[in-house]
Each structure stands twice: as C-alpha cells, then as structure tokens.
Amino acid sequence: MQLEALLRALSDPTRLRIMRLLAYMELAVGELAQVLGQSQPRVSRHVRILCDAGLAVRRKEGGWVFLRSAIGENRAPPLGSAAARLLSIGERDDAIFSARCAEDRRHLAAIRADREAKAEDYFSRHAEEWDRLRLLHCPDGPVETALSDALDAITSGSTLGMLLDVGTGTGRMAELFAARVTHVTAFDKSQEMLQIARARLQHFPADHVDLVQGDFTALPFEDETYDTVLFHQVMHYAQEPEAVLAEASRVTREGGIIAIVDFSAHDREELRSVHAHARLGFSDEQILALLSDAGFASAPAIALPGTPLTVKIWTAIKKSGTGAKPVAAAKGKNARR
Predict the structure, then answer these.
(1) What is the pLDDT of residues 173-194, one digit of tens each?
(2) CATH 1.10.630.10 fits domain 136-329
(3) pTM of the entire structure?
(4) What backbone phi and psi angles, to 5 degrees, belong to 170?
(5) Residue 329: its pLDDT value, please?
(6) CATH code for the structural domain at 3-108
(7) Measured between alpha carbons, how far is 337 from 50 in angstroms, rounded to an integer?
(8) Which positions ≥6 away from 186 have C-beta within 8 Å?
(9) In angstroms, how far is CA 279 from the centroid of its own chain?
C-alpha cells in the first residue's frame, strides 16, 4: 500500500462515501450504485481506483461483483489502519460529511430490508419441503447444543480462531459461532443460498464475516488458513467425500479442528431422489477412515437419535507433521489438479 495512491483514492467525495458504507457491510457494485444514486459504470470506475489503492477488494459471485473494505482501524497494514481511523474521525467531526453518510446508511437500511424480504420469501416457498425433512431427524436445537459442547470439549471453551463453514446454506452455523471466532468464512456453491446467508449475517461487522462462492472439492483458499472447518449437513451431497476432506485438510492448520454433522447410515432412498443426497448417511467406520486418510485424529462420535434418522457429530484434530494435504492425492475427477 503506497501513501500517494491511498491519498489520491481518498480525494474524491464519492469514494469517501463508498469506504464508509463498506465499513458496515460487503456490498455488490449494483447495490452501491443504488445507494449513491449514480450509474453502475461510474461506480465501477470508483471501485477500480479503491481496489488499485488497496483500500477495497472485489469478489465475483455468479453474475455479481461484491466489494468489501480491505482496511480496518485495528488491522494491518498500519497505513490502512490509519486511513480507517481518519475516515471514522472524519464522519464524527465533519458535519456535512456526517450528514451525507447518515443519508447513505438510510438507503443501505432499505437494501438490508429488501434482502431480508427476499430471504423470507425463499423460506416461505420451500418451507413445506424442509419441514418434511426435519420431521425425519432430531430437532435443530439439540444438535446445535451438542455440536457447541463437542467443540468446547476440544478447545476448553476458548476461541475457534479462523472458521470455515463449508456449505453454509442459510448461514445459521456461521451465525451461531460468530462470537467465538476471530473470523468466519461462509462458503457455499449456491448463489441463492449465499444471498440468504448474507441477509442473516449482515448485522456482523463487515471485516468479521466473508461470504464466498465455490465448490467444496476445490476450496479457493491458501494452505493451512483455518483453525476450524465445519461441515453441517453437507457431506451427504459429496459424490467423493475423500476429495472433499482432502481439501478440508489442506486448508486446516496443524492442530486445527474439523467437525462433521450429518446423518448416520440409513436406507431412505427418497432423500436421494427428492432431495439430491448423493450419500445415504455415513457409518462411523466410513467417517473415521476418511478422516484418518485426510490426516485427522478423531474423537468419539456423538449420536442424536431421531425417527427414523440419527444425526451424528464427528470431530477430529489435524495431526502434527501431516502438513497441507496435497489435493492431487484425492481420488476422482473432481479433485483439484
């Protein structure tokens, strides 16, 4: 980050407004244009300048481009931290700028309300289908409590560090553990589900949560990035679980935790045909072998019986000396080359 480029990027009133908006939440370029009352091409030019200066970061999600702040008052680099503090002080002490920012946030509140309305509509349309599935297994509350207790047992109640929630869906797990982590990445293949998760998670600080789209057989993250990796009701969609867990191992630090919440092995074929499950649950032997091959040492499984499906919680710790699991070692056409 260079001082000259930073100061030049912050020399425009619109870009100052954009940076204050991004201090609250990640926004699509189209949403920024809506808040600012400017054309999308014009806003895109401002975005490019901010990104080139290292003040913001772009992320593509399907046909949308999202923008988030790359600076924070208590984050590296020091020059970016100083810029974030300056913007905060400027809004507090400059009455005209403060009023402009307040108006922008009122428009932003309308965007948030729209997101929540769309999420509610999505749930309404799919409620009957999900309710039928929920009747087959243990209620969500006891499962969430048991998962939290299992993670507490491993960490002695301390922080979960950097958390990757694979297949975040509605963002419920990311929300549940957000207060216990230094940062959470909510990851999903479905753009529609990420929009639901964004509505759920938008009240958290913008620099505390990332939402990322992608495939769990080719995670777009550096080796040994995360302290905790969570798969909540996701593994039954995996055609090749070994490839998925090889990727999970690669991005997990030594001594890091993996937690898998899924169904015990069952014979409900309708879940394959109606709900697109690739696997009809897993036996303890299957999961323990998969985790061992991926470099994890497993803890005893936890069972939560339902009618007829039993939910299982498997937790494990990445063994020291295993390093980052080479993705090429994962079998199957979906393993990353």
Answers:
(1) 999 999 999 999 999 988 888 9
(2) no
(3) 0.72
(4) -80, -5
(5) 36
(6) 1.10.10.10
(7) 33
(8) 165, 168, 171, 174, 194, 197, 201, 209, 210, 211, 212
(9) 24
